[in-house]
Amino acid sequence: MDQQNGNTKKYGMVIDLDKCTGCGACMVACMAENNVPFREDDTDKLLSVSWMRVYRLGNGKPFPQVEECYLPRPCQQCEGHAGHSPCVSVCPATATDYDMRTGIVSQIPTRCFGCRYCMAACPYHVRQFNWWDPIWPDGMERMLNPNVSVRMRGVVEKCGFCFHRYQLATDKAYLDGRRELEEGEYQTACAQACPAGAILFGDLNNPTHAVHKIAQPDSTHGGRPRNPKAFRLLERLGTNPKVYYLSSKEWVRKAGDNQVQRTEQTPKA
Amino acid sequence: MEKPQVNVTSAASGHGEKEEGAGGAVILFFILGLVGSLLVGWVLFPQLLYSKKRQPVDFNHDKHMELVSDGCESCHFFRPDGTYSGVPQLAQCIQCHEEPNGEDPEEVKFVEEYVKKEREVPWLVYSRQPACVFFSHAAHVKMAKMDCVTCHGPIGESTSLKVYQANRITGYSRDIWGENMLGVKRKSWDRMKMDDCAECHAGAHVNPGSVQTQKDGCFVCHK
User: Fold this and answer.
1) Is A97's CB within 8 Å of B223's CB?
2) I need a labelling partner for B3 at 20 to 30 A (CA). Which of A31, A41, A79, B17 fits?
């Protein structure tokens, strides 16, 4: 087990917003994969549950210059400083936790008692509350994913980077006598479903993985991307998220974190 | 002033005699009550709490262990994708049990009721965990090289299947809580609760990954 210690993973995502068409396949794939409950009328997005949500951004300019961008938002899996991500720090029930071996923020619904501190702490609206017990349409119970437990009302849930897929992949690796996973063996449902290939998933610590090559995280500066096209949401908060976004458009990068962009770019201009 | 005094002493002595007799009765009543409630708690309550079911077909592990070459994994095998097959399905039994082997009524029942009708046997799984638990047989058996007996006990040497007891409130098998109502554990396979997993997982040889607990992370076993 000691060999593992020196080789900790930091699973992360790179989402290319230039490629994203806003089709919503990632949202559908995520809901199906993770048994996310829905209601007949799910129009009130403050009450509905969706681990992956695609937001529409606009540059707010009139017709000739108008531009749009879609931004898929899974859990950002913040590392914060030494694993103290905003939600993990406030949870009084130890229902959410940061795993140093995978870099994934876990959420254990059976441990959660629904105080929703984490929802208040999360700056990304990633966490959602189950206001109702899930009611599946007739026969859909048989379509549920057995690897993800179904949540009851009164608990918070969120994206966990399809952690069950990591477990299944490690099971196969163990059977083959390996401890290390190949890049393709563990992929999230949204990354696989994206028809545009906008979502990349892998180990940010592994220099051979695409996410590391593209985002080029700077470990001496809290994982900030070295790639000038890359940015993280609300970088200024120091949440140290593991989801990197790519955009060739400056207004999109600014929208991701207004304040830092402004202070950093004024001297240059 | 004299009369009341006499009255008081006589009354006091009379009361004292009565108290001794009543004290004995109270102690007896207390002991009977204690024994009674202990009997209810230790004998009657478990009977009420657990339902008893027989397995659909009785199975002789011992006899099968003599015939197979690869121990437990001959029937409880790993699939190539790393998942664990668990309780065998009919397809694995059919090779030998297309026709009844002998006169045993359980054997005849198995072939007539299930093999010939191509119905899967609805086995009751003693070690079934709640839906929120993830357990990897590959990690324990293949990577950590643990043997089956550590958690499941010497079930391979049994000649018949024991009565399946389900907790009427939770629906879980009694093997999860353990036979002992106090939860006393003498052997490693007596219980299958979270604490029993944690006994090893909190140990030094398992990687502490959790920021909250400095032990093994919750996601390791929970889903």
Assistant:
1) no
2) B17
